[in-house]
Amino acid sequence: MYPDPSAITRVASLGAGPIGGGWAAHFLARGYDVTAYIHDPSEHGALMAVIETGWKSLTALGLASDASMDRLTVTSDLSEAVEGAGFIQESAPERLEIKRALYTRLGEIVPREVVIGSSTSGLTMTEIAADCATPERCVIGHPFNPPYLLPLVEIVGGKQTDKAAVDWAAAFYELAGKAPLVMKKEVPGFVATRLQEALWREALHMVANGEATPEDIDIALINGPAPRMAVQGQCMAFHVACGEGGMATNLDQFGPALKWPWTRLEAPELTQELRDRMVEGCNAMAAGRHFEEMAGERDRKIVAVLKAVRDIG
Amino acid sequence: MYPDPSAITRVASLGAGPIGGGWAAHFLARGYDVTAYIHDPSEHGALMAVIETGWKSLTALGLASDASMDRLTVTSDLSEAVEGAGFIQESAPERLEIKRALYTRLGEIVPREVVIGSSTSGLTMTEIAADCATPERCVIGHPFNPPYLLPLVEIVGGKQTDKAAVDWAAAFYELAGKAPLVMKKEVPGFVATRLQEALWREALHMVANGEATPEDIDIALINGPAPRMAVQGQCMAFHVACGEGGMATNLDQFGPALKWPWTRLEAPELTQELRDRMVEGCNAMAAGRHFEEMAGERDRKIVAVLKAVRDIG
Asked: Could you give the domains of chain A?
Protein backbone atom coordinates (compact mmCIF):
# COMPACT_ATOMS: atom_id res chain seq x y z
CA MET A 1 0.00 0.00 0.00
CA TYR A 2 2.76 2.48 0.93
CA PRO A 3 5.31 3.42 -1.74
CA ASP A 4 8.94 2.35 -1.67
CA PRO A 5 10.58 4.73 0.85
CA SER A 6 13.63 5.08 -1.38
CA ALA A 7 11.43 6.39 -4.21
CA ILE A 8 10.38 9.48 -2.25
CA THR A 9 11.78 12.71 -3.74
CA ARG A 10 9.52 15.40 -2.28
CA VAL A 11 8.74 16.13 1.37
CA ALA A 12 6.32 18.67 2.80
CA SER A 13 7.31 20.31 6.10
CA LEU A 14 4.44 22.03 7.85
CA GLY A 15 5.32 24.79 10.30
CA ALA A 16 7.47 27.93 10.36
CA GLY A 17 9.01 27.53 13.82
CA PRO A 18 12.40 26.12 14.85
CA ILE A 19 11.14 22.55 14.46
CA GLY A 20 9.36 22.97 11.10
CA GLY A 21 12.23 25.05 9.73
CA GLY A 22 14.77 22.62 11.11
CA TRP A 23 13.06 19.70 9.38
CA ALA A 24 12.91 21.64 6.09
CA ALA A 25 16.65 22.33 6.32
CA HIS A 26 17.37 18.70 7.11
CA PHE A 27 15.40 17.29 4.16
CA LEU A 28 16.90 19.87 1.78
CA ALA A 29 20.38 18.88 2.94
CA ARG A 30 19.63 15.24 2.23
CA GLY A 31 18.69 16.05 -1.37
CA TYR A 32 14.90 16.17 -1.27
CA ASP A 33 12.57 18.68 -2.89
CA VAL A 34 10.91 20.40 0.06
CA THR A 35 7.68 22.33 0.22
CA ALA A 36 7.43 24.30 3.42
CA TYR A 37 3.97 25.31 4.57
CA ILE A 38 3.63 28.47 6.64
CA HIS A 39 0.33 29.40 8.24
CA ASP A 40 0.70 33.04 7.25
CA PRO A 41 2.88 34.76 4.62
CA SER A 42 4.30 36.99 7.37
CA GLU A 43 6.15 33.94 8.77
CA HIS A 44 8.36 33.68 5.68
CA GLY A 45 11.29 35.58 7.16
CA ALA A 46 11.31 33.58 10.39
CA LEU A 47 11.21 30.29 8.49
CA MET A 48 14.09 31.29 6.21
CA ALA A 49 16.18 32.40 9.20
CA VAL A 50 15.83 28.94 10.78
CA ILE A 51 16.62 27.18 7.50
CA GLU A 52 19.68 29.34 6.87
CA THR A 53 20.97 28.73 10.39
CA GLY A 54 20.53 24.99 9.96
CA TRP A 55 22.07 25.03 6.50
CA LYS A 56 25.43 26.23 7.89
CA SER A 57 25.73 23.21 10.18
CA LEU A 58 24.37 20.81 7.60
CA THR A 59 26.90 22.07 5.07
CA ALA A 60 29.69 21.51 7.58
CA LEU A 61 28.48 17.95 8.17
CA GLY A 62 28.29 17.28 4.43
CA LEU A 63 25.36 17.76 2.05
CA ALA A 64 23.92 15.13 -0.27
CA SER A 65 25.38 15.56 -3.76
CA ASP A 66 22.14 16.93 -5.19
CA ALA A 67 21.16 19.04 -2.17
CA SER A 68 20.25 22.64 -2.84
CA MET A 69 18.39 25.45 -1.12
CA ASP A 70 16.91 26.11 -4.58
CA ARG A 71 14.81 22.99 -4.14
CA LEU A 72 12.75 24.73 -1.45
CA THR A 73 9.25 26.06 -2.15
CA VAL A 74 7.42 28.05 0.50
CA THR A 75 3.64 28.45 0.46
CA SER A 76 0.81 29.38 2.77
CA ASP A 77 -1.62 27.25 0.72
CA LEU A 78 -1.91 23.88 2.47
CA SER A 79 -3.21 22.01 -0.60
CA GLU A 80 -0.31 23.30 -2.65
CA ALA A 81 2.12 22.37 0.13
CA VAL A 82 1.15 18.72 0.27
CA GLU A 83 0.73 18.22 -3.49
CA GLY A 84 3.14 15.63 -4.81
CA ALA A 85 4.77 15.11 -1.42
CA GLY A 86 5.76 11.51 -0.65
CA PHE A 87 6.00 12.25 3.08
CA ILE A 88 4.65 14.95 5.34
CA GLN A 89 6.36 16.19 8.48
CA GLU A 90 3.97 18.22 10.61
CA SER A 91 5.34 20.69 13.17
CA ALA A 92 2.28 22.85 13.92
CA PRO A 93 1.88 24.55 17.32
CA GLU A 94 1.51 22.17 20.29
CA ARG A 95 -2.21 22.76 20.84
CA LEU A 96 -4.56 19.85 20.46
CA GLU A 97 -7.36 21.81 18.76
CA ILE A 98 -4.94 23.17 16.13
CA LYS A 99 -3.39 19.79 15.41
CA ARG A 100 -6.73 18.00 15.40
CA ALA A 101 -8.24 20.44 12.87
CA LEU A 102 -5.11 20.19 10.73
CA TYR A 103 -5.26 16.38 10.63
CA THR A 104 -8.94 16.49 9.74
CA ARG A 105 -8.00 18.62 6.74
CA LEU A 106 -4.91 16.55 5.88
CA GLY A 107 -7.08 13.43 6.01
CA GLU A 108 -9.15 14.89 3.20
CA ILE A 109 -6.45 16.32 0.91
CA VAL A 110 -3.48 13.98 1.30
CA PRO A 111 -3.61 10.64 -0.57
CA ARG A 112 -3.96 7.83 1.94
CA GLU A 113 -0.73 6.09 0.96
CA VAL A 114 1.28 9.14 2.09
CA VAL A 115 2.55 8.80 5.65
CA ILE A 116 2.22 11.84 7.91
CA GLY A 117 4.68 12.25 10.79
CA SER A 118 4.05 14.65 13.67
CA SER A 119 6.83 16.41 15.58
CA THR A 120 4.65 16.65 18.69
CA SER A 121 6.46 16.25 21.98
CA GLY A 122 3.47 16.26 24.31
CA LEU A 123 0.40 14.89 22.51
CA THR A 124 -0.47 11.37 21.39
CA MET A 125 -1.43 10.43 17.86
CA THR A 126 -4.56 8.83 19.29
CA GLU A 127 -5.66 12.32 20.37
CA ILE A 128 -4.36 14.21 17.33
CA ALA A 129 -5.94 11.97 14.70
CA ALA A 130 -9.26 11.55 16.51
CA ASP A 131 -11.18 13.33 13.73
CA CYS A 132 -8.94 12.32 10.83
CA ALA A 133 -10.61 10.14 8.18
CA THR A 134 -7.35 8.27 7.54
CA PRO A 135 -5.61 7.87 10.91
CA GLU A 136 -3.93 4.59 9.94
CA ARG A 137 -1.04 6.42 8.17
CA CYS A 138 -0.49 9.02 10.91
CA VAL A 139 2.50 8.49 13.22
CA ILE A 140 4.53 10.53 15.63
CA GLY A 141 8.07 11.28 14.42
CA HIS A 142 9.47 13.29 17.30
CA PRO A 143 12.84 14.99 16.69
CA PHE A 144 15.29 16.29 19.24
CA ASN A 145 16.31 19.95 19.36
CA PRO A 146 18.04 21.19 17.25
CA PRO A 147 16.28 18.94 14.70
CA TYR A 148 18.66 19.77 11.84
CA LEU A 149 21.57 18.43 13.90
CA LEU A 150 20.57 15.73 16.35
CA PRO A 151 19.76 12.49 14.53
CA LEU A 152 17.15 11.03 16.89
CA VAL A 153 13.55 10.58 15.73
CA GLU A 154 11.23 8.76 18.14
CA ILE A 155 8.44 6.99 16.30
CA VAL A 156 5.19 5.72 17.74
CA GLY A 157 1.68 5.25 16.37
CA GLY A 158 -1.70 5.97 17.93
CA LYS A 159 -4.37 3.37 18.65
CA GLN A 160 -5.62 3.60 15.04
CA THR A 161 -2.20 3.66 13.35
CA ASP A 162 -1.17 0.75 11.10
CA LYS A 163 1.99 -1.05 12.12
CA ALA A 164 2.94 -0.83 8.44
CA ALA A 165 2.92 2.97 8.63
CA VAL A 166 5.17 2.91 11.68
CA ASP A 167 7.60 0.58 9.93
CA TRP A 168 7.47 2.69 6.77
CA ALA A 169 8.28 5.85 8.74
CA ALA A 170 11.25 4.14 10.43
CA ALA A 171 12.60 3.00 7.06
CA PHE A 172 12.05 6.41 5.48
CA TYR A 173 13.65 8.41 8.33
CA GLU A 174 16.67 6.13 8.22
CA LEU A 175 17.04 6.62 4.46
CA ALA A 176 16.69 10.35 5.09
CA GLY A 177 19.70 10.34 7.41
CA LYS A 178 18.00 10.18 10.79
CA ALA A 179 18.38 7.71 13.68
CA PRO A 180 14.86 6.28 14.11
CA LEU A 181 13.78 4.73 17.39
CA VAL A 182 10.48 2.87 17.19
CA MET A 183 8.69 2.82 20.54
CA LYS A 184 6.60 -0.09 21.72
CA LYS A 185 4.07 2.07 23.60
CA GLU A 186 2.78 5.62 23.67
CA VAL A 187 4.71 6.88 26.71
CA PRO A 188 4.69 10.56 27.71
CA GLY A 189 8.08 12.06 26.91
CA PHE A 190 9.09 9.10 24.73
CA VAL A 191 12.56 7.80 25.68
CA ALA A 192 15.06 10.65 25.34
CA THR A 193 12.94 13.36 26.91
CA ARG A 194 12.07 11.13 29.88
CA LEU A 195 15.74 10.44 30.52
CA GLN A 196 16.63 14.10 30.12
CA GLU A 197 13.72 15.11 32.34
CA ALA A 198 14.84 12.77 35.13
CA LEU A 199 18.25 14.40 35.07
CA TRP A 200 16.66 17.86 34.89
CA ARG A 201 14.41 17.30 37.89
CA GLU A 202 17.35 16.13 39.98
CA ALA A 203 19.26 19.23 38.85
CA LEU A 204 16.38 21.41 40.04
CA HIS A 205 16.36 19.59 43.39
CA MET A 206 20.07 20.26 43.82
CA VAL A 207 19.66 23.94 43.04
CA ALA A 208 16.60 24.17 45.32
CA ASN A 209 18.59 22.59 48.18
CA GLY A 210 21.62 24.82 47.71
CA GLU A 211 23.77 21.80 46.82
CA ALA A 212 24.73 23.12 43.38
CA THR A 213 24.34 26.18 41.19
CA PRO A 214 23.19 25.99 37.56
CA GLU A 215 26.83 26.51 36.62
CA ASP A 216 27.90 23.58 38.82
CA ILE A 217 25.32 21.41 37.04
CA ASP A 218 26.63 22.35 33.61
CA ILE A 219 30.30 22.03 34.55
CA ALA A 220 29.60 18.57 35.96
CA LEU A 221 27.79 17.41 32.82
CA ILE A 222 30.17 18.84 30.23
CA ASN A 223 33.28 17.53 31.98
CA GLY A 224 31.80 14.31 33.32
CA PRO A 225 29.15 12.00 31.88
CA ALA A 226 28.21 13.88 28.69
CA PRO A 227 31.30 13.38 26.48
CA ARG A 228 31.17 9.68 27.27
CA MET A 229 27.41 9.46 26.79
CA ALA A 230 27.78 11.06 23.36
CA VAL A 231 29.81 8.08 22.22
CA GLN A 232 28.48 5.30 24.43
CA GLY A 233 24.98 5.16 25.95
CA GLN A 234 24.63 4.69 29.69
CA CYS A 235 23.84 0.97 29.42
CA MET A 236 26.94 0.18 27.41
CA ALA A 237 29.01 2.60 29.50
CA PHE A 238 28.31 0.51 32.60
CA HIS A 239 28.58 -2.75 30.66
CA VAL A 240 32.04 -1.91 29.35
CA ALA A 241 33.27 -0.30 32.59
CA CYS A 242 32.64 -3.54 34.49
CA GLY A 243 35.07 -5.49 32.32
CA GLU A 244 34.56 -9.21 31.82
CA GLY A 245 31.50 -9.25 34.08
CA GLY A 246 29.70 -6.51 32.16
CA MET A 247 26.18 -5.41 33.09
CA ALA A 248 25.64 -8.49 35.28
CA THR A 249 28.51 -7.42 37.51
CA ASN A 250 27.23 -3.85 37.54
CA LEU A 251 23.77 -4.85 38.70
CA ASP A 252 24.96 -7.48 41.17
CA GLN A 253 27.54 -5.13 42.69
CA PHE A 254 25.69 -1.81 42.59
CA GLY A 255 22.11 -3.13 42.77
CA PRO A 256 21.91 -2.40 46.51
CA ALA A 257 22.93 1.22 45.77
CA LEU A 258 19.60 1.65 43.96
CA LYS A 259 18.12 1.91 47.46
CA TRP A 260 20.51 4.70 48.43
CA PRO A 261 19.31 8.30 48.35
CA TRP A 262 21.48 9.15 45.37
CA THR A 263 18.97 11.37 43.60
CA ARG A 264 15.40 11.80 44.82
CA LEU A 265 14.23 9.39 42.14
CA GLU A 266 12.94 6.12 43.53
CA ALA A 267 14.43 3.22 41.60
CA PRO A 268 12.38 0.23 40.48
CA GLU A 269 12.71 -3.11 42.23
CA LEU A 270 15.68 -4.93 40.74
CA THR A 271 13.82 -8.13 39.90
CA GLN A 272 15.42 -11.11 38.20
CA GLU A 273 13.43 -10.22 35.09
CA LEU A 274 14.75 -6.65 35.00
CA ARG A 275 18.27 -7.89 35.62
CA ASP A 276 17.96 -10.35 32.74
CA ARG A 277 16.60 -7.75 30.36
CA MET A 278 19.47 -5.39 31.13
CA VAL A 279 22.13 -8.08 30.83
CA GLU A 280 20.70 -9.62 27.67
CA GLY A 281 20.23 -6.20 26.07
CA CYS A 282 23.84 -5.23 26.69
CA ASN A 283 25.14 -8.58 25.48
CA ALA A 284 23.13 -8.13 22.29
CA MET A 285 24.63 -4.68 21.72
CA ALA A 286 28.14 -5.96 22.41
CA ALA A 287 27.53 -8.62 19.76
CA GLY A 288 30.48 -10.69 20.90
CA ARG A 289 33.00 -7.85 21.05
CA HIS A 290 35.41 -8.02 23.95
CA PHE A 291 35.08 -5.21 26.50
CA GLU A 292 38.63 -4.06 25.85
CA GLU A 293 37.85 -3.53 22.19
CA MET A 294 34.76 -1.51 23.10
CA ALA A 295 36.63 0.47 25.76
CA GLY A 296 39.31 1.29 23.19
CA GLU A 297 36.73 2.55 20.73
CA ARG A 298 35.07 4.57 23.49
CA ASP A 299 38.39 6.19 24.38
CA ARG A 300 39.27 7.08 20.78
CA LYS A 301 35.87 8.69 20.35
CA ILE A 302 36.03 10.61 23.63
CA VAL A 303 39.45 11.91 22.59
CA ALA A 304 37.94 13.08 19.31
CA VAL A 305 35.00 14.71 21.09
CA LEU A 306 37.24 16.50 23.56
CA LYS A 307 39.57 17.70 20.80
CA ALA A 308 36.66 18.74 18.61
CA VAL A 309 35.08 20.80 21.38
CA ARG A 310 38.40 22.28 22.49
CA ASP A 311 39.39 23.39 19.01
CA ILE A 312 36.19 25.38 18.42
CA GLY A 313 35.73 28.83 19.91
CA MET B 1 50.84 27.13 55.08
CA TYR B 2 50.29 25.19 51.85
CA PRO B 3 52.92 25.52 49.11
CA ASP B 4 52.36 27.33 45.82
CA PRO B 5 50.33 24.83 43.71
CA SER B 6 52.36 25.74 40.64
CA ALA B 7 55.56 24.69 42.43
CA ILE B 8 54.47 21.06 42.75
CA THR B 9 56.55 18.70 40.61
CA ARG B 10 55.90 15.28 42.19
CA VAL B 11 52.59 13.55 42.82
CA ALA B 12 51.94 10.26 44.59
CA SER B 13 49.06 8.14 43.29
CA LEU B 14 47.95 5.44 45.70
CA GLY B 15 46.14 2.45 44.21
CA ALA B 16 46.66 -0.04 41.38
CA GLY B 17 43.11 -0.15 40.03
CA PRO B 18 41.55 1.70 37.08
CA ILE B 19 41.20 4.88 39.14
CA GLY B 20 44.67 4.90 40.71
CA GLY B 21 46.27 3.90 37.42
CA GLY B 22 44.21 6.45 35.54
CA TRP B 23 45.33 9.22 37.86
CA ALA B 24 48.97 8.15 37.52
CA ALA B 25 48.67 8.28 33.72
CA HIS B 26 47.01 11.70 33.88
CA PHE B 27 49.67 13.27 36.11
CA LEU B 28 52.47 11.76 34.00
CA ALA B 29 50.88 13.20 30.86
CA ARG B 30 50.78 16.64 32.45
CA GLY B 31 54.53 16.53 33.12
CA TYR B 32 54.72 15.52 36.78
CA ASP B 33 57.03 13.03 38.42
CA VAL B 34 54.69 10.32 39.68
CA THR B 35 55.20 7.73 42.36
CA ALA B 36 52.55 5.04 42.19
CA TYR B 37 51.92 3.03 45.31
CA ILE B 38 50.66 -0.51 44.96
CA HIS B 39 49.57 -2.53 47.96
CA ASP B 40 51.35 -5.64 46.73
CA PRO B 41 54.13 -6.14 44.17
CA SER B 42 51.87 -8.58 42.30
CA GLU B 43 49.69 -5.63 41.23
CA HIS B 44 52.49 -4.15 39.10
CA GLY B 45 51.26 -5.63 35.82
CA ALA B 46 47.67 -4.51 36.31
CA LEU B 47 48.77 -0.97 37.16
CA MET B 48 50.99 -0.72 34.10
CA ALA B 49 48.22 -2.00 31.84
CA VAL B 50 45.91 0.79 33.01
CA ILE B 51 48.63 3.42 32.63
CA GLU B 52 49.54 2.23 29.14
CA THR B 53 45.88 2.26 28.06
CA GLY B 54 45.46 5.79 29.36
CA TRP B 55 48.73 6.91 27.81
CA LYS B 56 47.42 6.23 24.29
CA SER B 57 44.49 8.59 24.73
CA LEU B 58 46.53 11.17 26.60
CA THR B 59 49.11 11.16 23.80
CA ALA B 60 46.34 11.73 21.26
CA LEU B 61 45.04 14.67 23.30
CA GLY B 62 48.53 16.14 23.57
CA LEU B 63 51.15 15.58 26.28
CA ALA B 64 52.89 18.30 28.28
CA SER B 65 56.28 19.07 26.70
CA ASP B 66 58.19 17.37 29.51
CA ALA B 67 55.83 14.45 30.00
CA SER B 68 57.37 11.00 30.05
CA MET B 69 56.47 7.51 31.20
CA ASP B 70 60.11 7.40 32.45
CA ARG B 71 59.09 9.77 35.22
CA LEU B 72 57.03 7.01 36.85
CA THR B 73 58.24 5.14 39.92
CA VAL B 74 56.27 2.21 41.28
CA THR B 75 56.64 1.00 44.84
CA SER B 76 54.84 -1.08 47.42
CA ASP B 77 56.48 0.86 50.25
CA LEU B 78 54.04 3.56 51.35
CA SER B 79 56.69 5.78 53.01
CA GLU B 80 58.77 5.70 49.86
CA ALA B 81 55.69 6.46 47.74
CA VAL B 82 54.78 9.67 49.54
CA GLU B 83 58.33 10.92 50.03
CA GLY B 84 58.86 14.24 48.28
CA ALA B 85 55.32 14.30 46.87
CA GLY B 86 53.68 17.74 46.78
CA PHE B 87 50.23 16.19 46.42
CA ILE B 88 48.76 12.78 47.13
CA GLN B 89 45.86 11.23 45.20
CA GLU B 90 44.43 8.28 47.09
CA SER B 91 42.42 5.63 45.21
CA ALA B 92 42.40 2.74 47.67
CA PRO B 93 39.52 0.22 47.70
CA GLU B 94 36.12 1.65 48.69
CA ARG B 95 35.98 0.13 52.16
CA LEU B 96 35.86 2.45 55.13
CA GLU B 97 38.14 0.38 57.36
CA ILE B 98 40.85 0.27 54.66
CA LYS B 99 40.65 3.99 53.92
CA ARG B 100 40.50 4.92 57.60
CA ALA B 101 43.62 2.89 58.45
CA LEU B 102 45.41 4.34 55.44
CA TYR B 103 44.64 7.95 56.48
CA THR B 104 45.78 7.22 60.01
CA ARG B 105 49.12 6.13 58.57
CA LEU B 106 49.27 9.00 56.04
CA GLY B 107 48.56 11.42 58.88
CA GLU B 108 51.79 10.23 60.51
CA ILE B 109 54.14 10.05 57.54
CA VAL B 110 53.03 12.86 55.20
CA PRO B 111 54.08 16.42 56.09
CA ARG B 112 51.00 18.38 57.15
CA GLU B 113 51.34 21.00 54.39
CA VAL B 114 50.81 18.30 51.72
CA VAL B 115 47.18 18.05 50.62
CA ILE B 116 45.70 14.55 50.25
CA GLY B 117 42.82 14.02 47.79
CA SER B 118 40.63 10.93 47.90
CA SER B 119 38.99 9.44 44.80
CA THR B 120 36.18 7.97 46.91
CA SER B 121 32.77 7.98 45.29
CA GLY B 122 30.72 6.73 48.21
CA LEU B 123 32.37 7.75 51.50
CA THR B 124 32.70 11.14 53.16
CA MET B 125 35.99 12.67 54.27
CA THR B 126 34.46 13.12 57.71
CA GLU B 127 34.30 9.31 57.97
CA ILE B 128 37.59 8.58 56.22
CA ALA B 129 39.73 10.96 58.24
CA ALA B 130 38.11 10.18 61.60
CA ASP B 131 41.35 8.72 63.00
CA CYS B 132 43.79 10.88 61.03
CA ALA B 133 45.96 13.21 63.13
CA THR B 134 45.92 15.87 60.38
CA PRO B 135 42.42 15.81 58.83
CA GLU B 136 42.50 19.52 57.97
CA ARG B 137 44.45 18.88 54.71
CA CYS B 138 42.35 15.90 53.60
CA VAL B 139 39.77 16.51 50.84
CA ILE B 140 37.75 14.45 48.42
CA GLY B 141 38.85 14.85 44.80
CA HIS B 142 36.44 12.56 42.99
CA PRO B 143 37.18 11.86 39.29
CA PHE B 144 34.82 10.58 36.64
CA ASN B 145 35.49 7.33 34.79
CA PRO B 146 37.69 7.05 32.76
CA PRO B 147 39.76 9.38 34.98
CA TYR B 148 42.57 9.85 32.44
CA LEU B 149 40.06 11.27 29.95
CA LEU B 150 37.13 13.00 31.60
CA PRO B 151 38.20 16.31 33.13
CA LEU B 152 35.76 16.54 36.04
CA VAL B 153 37.03 16.41 39.63
CA GLU B 154 34.44 17.03 42.34
CA ILE B 155 36.02 18.50 45.46
CA VAL B 156 34.56 18.64 48.95
CA GLY B 157 36.01 18.62 52.44
CA GLY B 158 34.89 16.81 55.56
CA LYS B 159 33.81 18.47 58.79
CA GLN B 160 37.44 18.85 59.90
CA THR B 161 38.86 19.98 56.55
CA ASP B 162 40.29 23.50 56.21
CA LYS B 163 38.67 25.64 53.56
CA ALA B 164 42.23 26.56 52.54
CA ALA B 165 42.92 22.91 51.68
CA VAL B 166 39.78 22.73 49.54
CA ASP B 167 40.79 25.91 47.70
CA TRP B 168 44.33 24.65 47.29
CA ALA B 169 43.08 21.38 45.79
CA ALA B 170 40.86 23.24 43.32
CA ALA B 171 43.77 25.44 42.23
CA PHE B 172 46.12 22.48 41.94
CA TYR B 173 43.72 20.26 39.96
CA GLU B 174 43.08 23.13 37.56
CA LEU B 175 46.81 23.66 37.02
CA ALA B 176 47.09 19.91 36.49
CA GLY B 177 44.61 20.04 33.61
CA LYS B 178 41.43 18.99 35.35
CA ALA B 179 38.04 20.72 35.61
CA PRO B 180 37.53 21.17 39.36
CA LEU B 181 34.06 21.59 40.83
CA VAL B 182 34.05 22.65 44.47
CA MET B 183 30.91 21.48 46.26
CA LYS B 184 29.25 23.47 48.99
CA LYS B 185 28.09 20.42 50.95
CA GLU B 186 28.93 16.75 51.38
CA VAL B 187 26.14 15.26 49.24
CA PRO B 188 26.02 11.53 48.39
CA GLY B 189 26.90 11.10 44.72
CA PHE B 190 28.28 14.64 44.43
CA VAL B 191 26.81 16.42 41.38
CA ALA B 192 27.63 14.39 38.27
CA THR B 193 26.86 10.98 39.70
CA ARG B 194 23.53 12.16 41.12
CA LEU B 195 22.49 13.49 37.72
CA GLN B 196 23.66 10.34 35.98
CA GLU B 197 21.93 8.19 38.60
CA ALA B 198 18.60 9.99 38.09
CA LEU B 199 18.81 9.24 34.39
CA TRP B 200 19.88 5.67 35.10
CA ARG B 201 17.00 4.96 37.47
CA GLU B 202 14.50 6.24 34.91
CA ALA B 203 16.17 4.03 32.30
CA LEU B 204 15.71 1.02 34.60
CA HIS B 205 12.05 1.94 35.09
CA MET B 206 11.53 2.06 31.32
CA VAL B 207 13.15 -1.34 30.84
CA ALA B 208 11.21 -2.80 33.77
CA ASN B 209 7.93 -1.52 32.26
CA GLY B 210 8.68 -2.82 28.77
CA GLU B 211 8.73 0.73 27.40
CA ALA B 212 12.29 0.53 26.11
CA THR B 213 15.15 -1.93 25.74
CA PRO B 214 18.71 -1.15 26.85
CA GLU B 215 19.49 -0.58 23.17
CA ASP B 216 16.61 1.91 22.87
CA ILE B 217 18.02 3.79 25.89
CA ASP B 218 21.47 4.00 24.34
CA ILE B 219 20.22 4.94 20.85
CA ALA B 220 18.12 7.71 22.38
CA LEU B 221 21.03 9.13 24.38
CA ILE B 222 23.70 8.94 21.69
CA ASN B 223 21.51 10.48 19.00
CA GLY B 224 19.56 12.87 21.22
CA PRO B 225 20.62 14.77 24.33
CA ALA B 226 24.20 13.54 24.77
CA PRO B 227 26.02 15.25 21.86
CA ARG B 228 24.40 18.52 22.87
CA MET B 229 25.09 17.99 26.57
CA ALA B 230 28.76 17.38 25.79
CA VAL B 231 29.06 20.94 24.52
CA GLN B 232 26.35 22.73 26.51
CA GLY B 233 25.08 21.68 29.93
CA GLN B 234 21.36 21.14 30.44
CA CYS B 235 20.82 24.54 32.09
CA MET B 236 22.38 26.49 29.25
CA ALA B 237 20.77 24.19 26.67
CA PHE B 238 17.33 25.24 27.90
CA HIS B 239 18.44 28.85 28.40
CA VAL B 240 19.66 29.17 24.81
CA ALA B 241 16.82 27.16 23.27
CA CYS B 242 14.29 29.62 24.68
CA GLY B 243 15.77 32.54 22.76
CA GLU B 244 15.42 36.05 24.15
CA GLY B 245 13.42 34.84 27.14
CA GLY B 246 16.04 32.29 28.22
CA MET B 247 15.64 30.23 31.40
CA ALA B 248 12.84 32.48 32.68
CA THR B 249 10.73 31.59 29.64
CA ASN B 250 11.60 27.93 30.03
CA LEU B 251 10.48 27.80 33.66
CA ASP B 252 7.40 29.96 33.17
CA GLN B 253 6.30 27.96 30.13
CA PHE B 254 7.29 24.45 31.14
CA GLY B 255 7.05 24.84 34.93
CA PRO B 256 3.61 23.20 35.00
CA ALA B 257 5.08 20.21 33.13
CA LEU B 258 7.17 19.48 36.24
CA LYS B 259 3.94 18.06 37.66
CA TRP B 260 3.47 15.74 34.70
CA PRO B 261 4.47 12.09 35.01
CA TRP B 262 7.40 12.48 32.64
CA THR B 263 9.79 10.24 34.54
CA ARG B 264 8.96 8.74 37.90
CA LEU B 265 11.07 11.36 39.58
CA GLU B 266 9.08 13.84 41.63
CA ALA B 267 10.17 17.36 40.85
CA PRO B 268 10.71 19.99 43.53
CA GLU B 269 8.23 22.80 44.04
CA LEU B 270 9.05 25.54 41.56
CA THR B 271 9.25 28.33 44.12
CA GLN B 272 10.10 31.93 43.25
CA GLU B 273 13.45 31.38 44.94
CA LEU B 274 14.28 28.33 42.81
CA ARG B 275 13.14 30.16 39.69
CA ASP B 276 15.39 33.10 40.54
CA ARG B 277 18.40 30.89 41.23
CA MET B 278 18.00 29.15 37.87
CA VAL B 279 17.50 32.37 35.92
CA GLU B 280 20.32 34.24 37.65
CA GLY B 281 22.66 31.28 37.27
CA CYS B 282 22.06 31.07 33.53
CA ASN B 283 22.38 34.80 33.07
CA ALA B 284 25.69 34.67 34.88
CA MET B 285 26.94 31.90 32.58
CA ALA B 286 25.74 33.76 29.49
CA ALA B 287 27.76 36.76 30.69
CA GLY B 288 25.96 39.10 28.34
CA ARG B 289 26.29 36.96 25.23
CA HIS B 290 23.27 36.97 22.93
CA PHE B 291 21.47 33.65 22.62
CA GLU B 292 22.13 33.53 18.88
CA GLU B 293 25.87 33.73 19.47
CA MET B 294 25.64 30.91 22.00
CA ALA B 295 23.39 28.82 19.75
CA GLY B 296 25.89 29.29 16.92
CA GLU B 297 28.75 28.10 19.10
CA ARG B 298 26.65 25.15 20.27
CA ASP B 299 25.94 24.15 16.67
CA ARG B 300 29.58 24.39 15.56
CA LYS B 301 30.59 22.21 18.47
CA ILE B 302 27.84 19.64 17.90
CA VAL B 303 28.92 19.43 14.25
CA ALA B 304 32.47 18.78 15.41
CA VAL B 305 31.31 16.14 17.89
CA LEU B 306 29.17 14.36 15.30
CA LYS B 307 31.98 14.42 12.73
CA ALA B 308 34.53 13.30 15.28
CA VAL B 309 32.43 10.34 16.36
CA ARG B 310 31.47 9.43 12.79
CA ASP B 311 35.03 9.44 11.52
CA ILE B 312 36.26 7.00 14.15
CA GLY B 313 35.65 3.29 13.85
From this structure: 5-182 (3.40.50.720), 224-310 (no CATH)
